[in-house]
Amino acid sequence: MEVPLLQKQFSPGNLFSKVVLESKKLWFIAGPAIFTTICQYSIGAITQTFMGHVNAFELGTVAVANSVVTGFGYGLMLGMGSALETLCGQAFGGGRTHMLGVYMQRSWIILLTTALVLIPVYIFCPQILTLVGLDSEIAFSVGKFSVWMLPQLFAYALNFPIQKFLQAQSKVMVMAYVAAIVLALHVVLSWLVILKLKWGLVGAAVSLNLSWWLVVFGQLIYILVWKSDGAWSGFSWLAFSDLFGFVKLSLASAVMLCLQFWYLMVLIIIVGHLKNPLVPVDAMSICMNINGWDAMIGVGFNAAIRVRVSNELGAGNDKAAKFAVVVASATSIIIGLVIMTLVLTTRDEFPVLFTNDFEVAKAVSKLAILLAVTVILNSLQPVLSGVAVGAGWQALIAYINLACYYIVGLPAGLLLGFKLGFGAEGIWGGMIGGIALQAIVLIGITLSTNWKKEATEAKNRLSRWGGSAGGDG
């Protein structure tokens, strides 16, 4: 009787049905997460587009502010909020749904405090930007705009914990609906205040701040008024317990994500120090723009695998967590191969969609090979990072990112680009080496993981940080 049972368990048909079922679970989260990310990414992009119809100087102000100042706040808040994915996901998987609201409140306390600490960065950013070589007139304008953008920073502090709270329960459709509605309102609002009323930078700040706060209020209404399924049972004093342990995990999450988030952003800054940098900077910007849109897919799979791994480990299902990693990795690699093929086959055609300059288009075509390699590496990397967050390995991955990206990849890029004279291709190629090394290390860690031990650690973490089976008081 046992032999037929084993044959059925490992038969191709049974394996196929398991893959299909797991794929449905992944796409149920990944699809809306990709859509939500695109909508929220588009909020800033649409504002910049409208500002481009005002004048080039104000467009530059908004672009630098979004990329550097608010981009810094966004990356830090998103990273610190990622700690919630480990705890909420494992608590939900372990049947301790009542703790999700407590964890979200703890994250609010930490992120709102972080936002207060970041206020001087926004206020004194003209001096900081001038110090790193930005034109003083632009730096002053960016500083003025950044002060107006402080409400957005506090919206980030509330938004990211809310999103992780909802993602842990796979309630991703509500996030997608809210993001779509706010994006539509943002288009109308931006047109009104920037073009119709001609408020300029003030109008841009009003539309961005209001839209991000609408995202927060829309999601909060769903949680507090409409539906929480026991995950929210009101404000609790438990939110103030064990904040130190929560801060440690939040900081580890922030360092892990920010080291990753800023790595390719540094690329354009470095290329800007080449001799005659205009063409390579423009070409690199186009490639990074394409890579950014491709990254939206990675963000969706990153969210999906974080939820799947944390939920299964919290429930003690170590084999299911391992299988989810395999399916997500295989799916993301297939998507990466498709996009890589598309980039390579259209390398002489797609540059003309972004520029009329022949030299820039030619440079983009040359860089397309490196873009294709980056695409395939970045298809797997978000999944592996998502596994790390789902399992609670943030501190370990932060060290790996630091070593691979900034001790190996960045110096290799500088050596190839400047010392050996390979220019933009050399800088990017060296930095790709850092991404490849990180992927190899993460693959090794994932393959050698004792998933049963991770499930036990998830149970211990919930008990240690207020996850006991009682109410939250």
How is this structure best described in words?
The protein has 18 helices and no strands. It is mainly alpha-helical. The longest helix is centred in the N-terminal third of the chain and has 40 residues, at 12-51. The protein is globular.
Q: Give unreliable regions as ranges.
A: 1-10, 467-473
Percent in helix: over 70%
- Structure summary, number of beta strands: 0
H/E topology pattern? HHHHHHHHHHHHHHHHHH
The best one-word shape is globular
Mean pLDDT: 82
| Backbone structural class | mainly alpha
Specify the number of helices: 18
Major pleated sheet: none
First-to-last CA distance: 51 Å
Alpha carbon gyration radius: 23 Å
Percentage of residues in DSSP E strands? under 5%
Notable characteristics:
single chain; 473 residues; mainly alpha; disordered N terminus; disordered C terminus
The gist of it:
With 473 residues, the protein is mostly helical.
Give me the secondary-structure topology.
Layout: H1 2-9, H2 12-51, H3 56-81, H4 83-93, H5 99-123, H6 125-131, H7 136-148, H8 150-168, H9 172-196, H10 200-226, H11 243-261, H12 263-271, H13 278-314, H14 318-345, H15 358-391, H16 394-419, H17 423-447, H18 451-464
Helix pairs in contact: 2-3, 2-9, 2-10, 2-13, 2-14, 3-5, 3-7, 3-8, 3-11, 4-5, 4-8, 4-13, 5-8, 6-7, 8-10, 9-10, 11-16, 12-13, 12-17, 13-14, 13-15, 13-18, 14-15, 14-18, 15-17, 16-17
InterPro entries: MATE_euk, MATE_fam
Keywords: Membrane, Transmembrane, Transmembrane helix
Protein name: Protein DETOXIFICATION
